[in-house]
Amino acid sequence: MSARSANLIRFLSDVRVAVDRGEYSIGDKIVVTVANNLDQPLEIGTQRTNCSILWIERFADGLWQRLRNCTDLSPAVEMHMEAKKQLTQTIDTGYTYGGPSFFPEGIYRASLHFTAGELTEGYYIGIATSTVFRIK
């Protein structure tokens, strides 16, 4: 195995996304912890300026489908996350956009899209996902 392959494997396992429970009811809040256990910072693309850094995906028709869990119309921004740090975000399953719950019953996961490293030293683009959880 090359050094770059070994670094990639370590890289992909050292950025973690974890939810606080395996099952939620509509209206519950999901606490998601993102941990950067790397020795380098992450750059994380957000959906919009005032939105979560996380994407919520629902398993339907045999595929993971990304939900647009943000209605803010401001531009997307990059967020910097220091090495060896963690942060938490809360997702409100009761959010409705003025209609029925945005989170219908089903199987979900949270995902984080990020980059790490310098272009000259080995630049990585990654996606870290949580374990699956159910909303009922």
The gross shape turns out to be elongated
The stretches of 5 or more residues where confidence is low (pLDDT under 50) are none
Assess the beta-strand content as a share of residues: over 45%
Class from helix and strand fractions: mainly beta
* Cα separation of the termini: 44 Å
Using only C-alpha atoms, the radius of gyration works out to: 16 Å
What level of helicity do the residues show?
A: under 10%
Oligomer: single chain
Q: What is the count of β-strands?
A: 11
Largest sheet: 8 strands, mixed
What's the total helix number? 1
Mean pLDDT: 81
The SSE order reads HEEEEEEEEEEE
Tell me about this structure.
This protein is mainly beta and 136 residues long. It is built from one helix and eleven strands; from the N terminus they run αβββββββββββ. It has one helix at residues 3-13, and strands spanning 15-19, 23-24, 29-36, 42-45, 54-60, 63-67, 78-81, 85-92, 106-116, 124-129, 133-135. The strands form two sheets. Strands 2, 4, 5, 6, 7, 9, 10 and 11 form an eight-stranded mixed β-sheet that branches. Strands 1-3-8 form a three-stranded antiparallel β-sheet. The longest helix is centred in the N-terminal third of the chain and has 11 residues, at 3-13. It is elongated, with a radius of gyration of 16 Å. The N and C termini lie far apart (44 Å). The mean pLDDT is 81.
